[in-house]
Design a protein that fits this description.
alpha/beta, Aspartate Aminotransferase, domain 1, Aspartate Aminotransferase, domain 2, 6-stranded mixed beta sheet, 11 strands
C-alpha cells in the first residue's frame, strides 16, 4: 500500500534530524540562561550558539537576532509604530498591523509569498522597512545585511525547526519597542525566560538549511516543481500557474483550476493520500477566496479555485508524478460533473 505524500511544506516542514538531536541535548540542561552560575552559563552558551547559527543563515549579526515564539509575535513589534503600510499580498501577520497615523510610515513587505511563492524585492521607501522572510530562509539566497531592511521576521518550523519558536531581526542601531516587558531577556526586547529547547532546534535547523541551500538541494526540488507545473497545466481548461515566468520559490506551485473550488481539491487530494492546501495555513481552514490572489488582480471566482502545492528536499519524483496523475483524474471528473 502506498503511503501518504506530504506536499504542504510551506505550511510547515518536517523536523530535521539535526534539530531533534539539538533539542534532546538541550533538555538535559538544568540552568536558566539568565543565571550566572555554571549551569546558567551552559544554558546561555546554547542560546548564543543558536543565535549565531540563525544569524549566519539570514546574513545578519548575532546581536541583531531576537528570539520569539514565531514570526507572528515578531511582527507584533509593529504595534509600537503609529503609521504602518503593508504590501497588499503580505501574510496576515503583517496585514493585521496596517494602520494610518502620524510620522514616517513603516513598510511591511512580504519578500517571498507563502501562497504563490512569488519573490518581490521591497520598493524604495522613505521610512523603516520590515521584511517577512519566513518562506525565503534556507530556500533562496538572502542577506539581511544587504537587504536594506531595518527589521525581518522568520519562523523555525518553515525550515525544519520546531514549531513555536522564531525570530525578529533588528538592524543594529534601529530602535524598536519591547515585544514583552517584565524582564531583561533578549537584550530587553522580549521578556521571559528563553525557550532554550526550541531555540536550540531552530539554530541547528538554520545551519542545516543553509548547508542544503549551498549544496544545491533546492535545484532538485525546483526541477520536480517544474515537472508538476507542466503536468497540471496540461489539463487545459485555462489552468493558471500563478507567478510562472517570474522569480518565485523553488518549491511552490499555486495553480488555479477553473471549475473546481480550492477547498474541494484539498479534500479530494486528502482522500487520495496527498496533503496540499488552498492557501495560507493560517487561513486554509476558512472557506473564502484567497486575499493574496485578489490583491494580484484575480477575481473572486478564480481566487477561490486555487491550490498551493509546496515540495521539500524529501519529496521524490515518483510522488510528484503520482500526485499529477491523481489530480488530473479528479479534475476531469469535476469538470464532467459540472458539464
Amino acid at each position: 500500500m502506498r503511503g501518504r505524500v506530504y506536499l504542504d511544506w510551506n505550511a510547515t516542514s518536517p523536523l530535521r534530524a539535526e534539530a531533534r538531536v539539538a533539542m534532546i541535548a538541550a533538555m538535559d540542561l538544568a540552568g536558566n540562561p539568565s543565571s550566572v552560575h555554571a549551569e546558567g552559563r551552559a544554558a546561555r552558551a546554547l542560546v548564543e550558539k543558536a543565535r549565531a547559527q540563525v544569524a549566519a543563515a539570514v546574513g545578519c549579526k548575532p546581536a541583531e537576532v531576537v528570539f520569539t515564539s514565531g514570526a507572528t509575535e515578531a511582527a507584533a513589534v509593529l504595534r509600537g509604530f503609529q503609521h504602518v503600510v503593508v504590501d497588499p499580498t503580505a501574510h496576515d501577520c503583517l496585514w493585521s498591523q496596517a494602520r494610518e497615523g502620524q510620522g514616517p510610515a513603516v513598510l511591511g513587505w512580504g519578500y517571498a509569498n507563502n501562497e504563490t511563492g512569488v519573490i518581490a524585492e521591497a520598493p524604495a521607501h522613505d521610512g523603516p522597512v520590515m521584511l517577512d522572510i519566513v518562506q525565503a530562509v534556507g530556500k533562496v539566497p538572502f542577506s539581511f545585511a544587504w537587504s536594506g531592511a531595518d527589521m525581518a521576521i522568520l519562523s523555525a518550523h518553515k525550515f525544519g525547526g520546531p514549531k513555536g519558536v522564531g525570530a525578529l531581526i533588528v538592524r543594529d542601531g534601529f530602535e524598536v519597542p519591547a515585544l514583552l516587558t517584565g524582564g531583561g531577556q533578549e537584550m530587553g526586547r522580549r521578556a521571559g525566560t528563553e525557550n532554550i529547547i526550541g531555540i536550540a532546534g531552530m539554530g541547528a535547523a538554520a545551519e542545516a538549511a543553509q548547508r542544503d541551500l549551498e549544496g544545491g538541494v533546492w535545484d532538485r526540488v525546483a526541477e520536480f516543481r517544474n515537472i508538476l507545473d507542466s503536468a497540471l497545466s496540461s489539463a487545459g481548461n485555462n489552468t493558471i500557474s500563478v507567478g510562472k515566468g517570474g522569480p518565485r520559490l523553488p518549491n511552490t506551485l499555486n495553480l488555479i483550476a477553473p471549475g473546481w473550488k480550492g477547498e474541494t481539491q484539498v479534500m479530494a487530494m486528502d482522500l487520495a493520500g496527498f496533503a496540499i492546501s488552498a492557501g495560507s495555513a493560517c487561513s486554509s481552514g476558512k472557506v473564502r477566496a484567497s486575499r493574496v490572489l485578489k490583491a494580484m488582480g484575480f477575481d473572486e471566482g478564480l481566487a477561490a479555485q486555487a491550490i498551493r502545492i509546496s515540495l521539500g528536499p524529501l519529496t521524490e519524483k515518483e510522488e510528484v508524478e503520482r500526485f499529477a496523475e491523481a489530480w488530473l483524474a479528479h479534475y476531469r471528473k469535476a469538470l464532467a460533473r459540472a458539464a
